[in-house]
Amino acid sequence: MGRVVRALGRLSMDRVKTGVVGLDTMLNGGLLPARPYVISGPTGSGKTILALHFLLEGLRQQEPCLLVTLDEPPIEVKANMATFSWNLDRLKILDATPDIRAHKRQRSVIDVGTSLDVRDMEDVTEIRQSSQIRALEVTVHSVQKMIKQEFSHHLERTKQRYKRIVIDSMTALKMFAMQGQDSRILIQSFVRFLAELEATTLIISERLNKKILETEFFLARGEIRVNKWIDGSVIRRAISIEKFRGSSFDDRMHPISIGDNGMVVYLDAPAQTRVSTPAPKPGESLLETRLIDEVSNVIESIMRQIEDAHRRQVPIRDIEVSLSRAMLAFQRRNYQKAIKLALACDSELKERLGKAPLPPPISTPPRPPQVIR
Ligand SMILES: Nc1ncnc2c1ncn2[C@@H]1O[C@H](COP(=O)(O)OP(=O)(O)OP(=O)(O)O)[C@@H](O)[C@H]1O
Ligand SMILES: [Mg+2]
Prior knowledge:
Number of domains: 2
CATH class of the largest domain: Alpha Beta
Bound molecules: adenosine-5'-triphosphate, magnesium ion
Number of strands: 10
Distance between the termini: 27 Å
Helix content: 40-55%
Radius of gyration: 21 Å
CATH superfamily of the largest domain: P-loop containing nucleotide triphosphate hydrolases
Shape: globular
Strand content: 15-25%
CATH architecture of the largest domain: 3-Layer(aba) Sandwich
């Protein structure tokens, strides 16, 4: 009995708490460590607030935490969070906003005469390598390079790795940096890069269209969705876990509120209608819905195999290109073509992985045994 209790205790210790109490209960104790997760939801739903809870919880546990901000410059992040009496002093903020926006926004914050004490803002540890990111020149590669450099500098300085990272947001990164058809491949490699950092990472991403398969949603180990809708004249919010690989979880949607203490989840409130559940649209046949599910499953499996291939250094660039074609067909709602292309990728990948030599012995320290892959 004692052993069981100890084992359970260890298991919950290995969970990474989000810092939002009710959400941690929904997650069966918290996130599984060292993996990327997506926080999705419409604008103003509370994604950044949730991510800051997660970072604050890390700081409370003396863990090195990093916020990579693309949406708002650090000064504005702080100004927005001023109502919450949170101490973000020890938070490292990597400013990856394009210069022009950052400059304009910073001025406007001061111009409007915010109640914030500007001296407090100087406490924010900001990192900006402007030689790498110039005006409106944010690329996936430059952001990746910034993170990589900050990681190694931090490791050198403190002999510690970052444990928690937030990317706020992938939607902004895509808007600034993604033009051209290679964007899916770039995102795939960016999410893989984040996974290899072995920090628990939250990628904030708006799910703009339920029909569009955004790459990060496949590669992430889980998705927490912050829902927001108008009920008469009242804004309502609720939280749901859409996916959580390797763990059981509470799959109901629970109401949330945002107040002076941040986000609160009401676990005992009556279950909500899942507004995010795609209601079958008129004209969308059952066959089409099945096809969507099938394509999603095949693509998700391909993504996992691609990760495996990269770990084992099996060359698959051509398959990644074919996959991006399959995803494009999916986005254009050409499901027949998407499934055909995806199945071809799947069998080609299986064949190459089958022929490839076994992975080389891993030199990094082994993962804790509790981590379920
Ligand atoms: N002290 C507070 N009390 C109540 N509500 C607040 C408070 N501070 C912020 N909010 C609400 O939280 C919302 C913003 O949350 P947050 O910035 O996390 O949204 P977001 O999902 O990140 O949006 P975006 O996609 O635009 O970045 C605001 O729209 C505001 O309504
Ligand atoms: Mg935000």
